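It would be a great kindness if you could assist me with a short task in structural biology. I am sending you one protein, given as its amino acid sequence and as whole-number tokens for its backbone shapes. I would ask you to consider whether the tokens describe a fold that such a sequence might reasonably adopt. The full record is reproduced below for your convenience.
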Amino acid sequence: MLTTVFAVIGFLSIALYVGPLLFQTIFFNVQNLKKKYNAQWALVTGGSSGIGLAMSETLASQGINVVVAALNDKAMESAKVSLPRKFPGIQFRFVSVNLGAHDPTVYMTPLIEATNDISVQLVFNNAGYILVGLFHLTSLEAIMSCLNCNNIAAVQITHHFTGRLVAESQKGAVFFTSSPGGFMASPMAPLYSTTKSFLTNFAVSIAAELTPNNIDVCVIHPSPTNTAFYNGAGNMSTLTTFQKLSGSPQAIVDAALRCIGRTVNVEHGWYTVGNRLLLKILDYTVMSDLMWVFVRGQGDYEKIRVGQLEKLGGKTVGSVTARGGVVASKAVKGQ
């Protein structure tokens, strides 16, 4: 009797996950967001490279004008040239901002000024990065910058633009780039899983609230994707392996455009699905204890620990805070 009960539970658990995925893949086509929302303008954070650039190009190809918000770097300079050249009939506004700034007005003021005279109906919260390093050996400044970029900026931006849409009785959509990394903890990059888990739950929570206002919310969890994200991997072998198996940013954009307004939580690719199925076999509690026991014995753990201590000159964690230096692998604000 118990065997039958557990078999039924196991079957339903997998079927109710895999079934909707197959349905989305077979029956959901890529939607034209200009037609769906009668949208004239979109905002894409991290829109100068990777998934963000692919999203900016796709929106422009559908006839939607785009506000590109990203760091003032080489990728942004390249986008300023390539996007208008590729889509001459589309308007672009480029806003150079650091979404990791501790003071939100540093990025919100330029964004508000750049969009005061237009109606932004589509908001794509895509910017984010990974900060590799042991928490106690990483400066608080670096930790807070990652938290600000990955979470706080998305909350600030979403609150401002959804508030405008509701006040103007405009329909629209808000999109978040999360990660399967948020399904479980990520020792040696603790802010990544934490911030991505927040994004997922935040998106699903506000989706229910905004539906009566004709505002759709969608959060996507891409499998490894070939973007500048991996510039922040340092010498972490797991991430280097994922980079070799990474897919196209356009595939992520297409998945998002198939699902927005049709479902809230989108899981795309082999790694995302594999992680979800693994957690149906190994409960999160068990997985947590396995990490607690085995991670410290991994080569990456020791390599990262030693590398951070060398940068500190062997000083203790108290010295890290005092110095305030960024003691972690190079981080790139973009996905």
In short: Strands lie at 41-45, 65-70, 92-96, 120-125, 172-177, 215-222, 265-268. The longest strand covers residues 215-222.
